[in-house]
Amino acid sequence: MSKARVFGDWGTTRLRLYRAEGGAVTDRASGPGALSGEAGAVLGERLAPWIAEGGVEAVTLCGMAGAKGGLVDAGYVACPASREAWLSAPTRTQVADVEVSVLPGVCTGGDGVGEVPDVMRGEETQVFGAMALIPELASGRHLVVLPGTHCKWVELVDGAITGFRTYPTGELFALLTGHSTLGGPEVAGEGTFDEGFARGLERCGEPLGASLFEARAARIVQGRSSEWSRGYLSGLLVGGEVTAQDDRHGPVYLIGDATISALYRRALEASGIAVTMIDGDEAVLAGLRQASGVTA
């Protein structure tokens, strides 16, 4: 009986592991973020049951496992980053006597000459995985958006990541709703999250600093609910990303969690941009399979 292969997406807050046998995922495991403890011990603990059951041949990881302070520093591939360049640059280590390959991230601005510095870890695996799921992404120019704590707007040209921008929208939303008077305490009132989001989209073209305070003022003057305020802030931030783009003619490929991607789809379609949705788990698995040479 052949040993299993393990794929993993190890982010800042969460570890997701997939055991694959014969190309099919047969089990899953989860754990804390890559920077939340001794990464080698955390990974070894999660692998132990699978090693005991039948063995693990090798592990392939993407994400913050490759960051400084993670499992091992896997570095970055500079833009323009082709799939071939990315696949050729894993960093290898050992955990529990199993070989672990950690994939690099992608960066811009490494030469320090004019270009704005930016980094991604994990999203590149989803982008290259999406290319395997949708072959037409491997040629021509395409815009790929990956919503999340740090949303990425990625330009693909003939299968290479030629540039990208990061918007820390999820982080800003958490700060505004959890650590400011704008989100406010939970109070009863009128209006749903969706209604607040729609209002945020209406105002997202205005200067952000002048628009934010409506989240609080509407609760005081108009009796809006806390959920309405949260939706309003979300609409402002997500809509602001869309209006900030130089090229808003689409189409856009959205990769990620269905719930948050639905908000981006709503904002994009409100601007007349066609959207194709790609499941984030399917994309990352497709990317990790490519990196490990395993077919579904």
TrEMBL record:
GO biological process: D-galactonate catabolic process
InterPro entries linked: DGOK (IPR007729), DGOK_C (IPR042257), DGOK_N (IPR042258)
Phylogenetic placement of the source organism: Bacteria, Pseudomonadati, Pseudomonadota, Alphaproteobacteria, Sphingomonadales
Domain of life: Bacteria
UniProt-recorded name of the protein: 2-dehydro-3-deoxygalactonokinase
Pfam name, any one: DGOK
GO molecular function per UniProt: 2-dehydro-3-deoxygalactonokinase activity
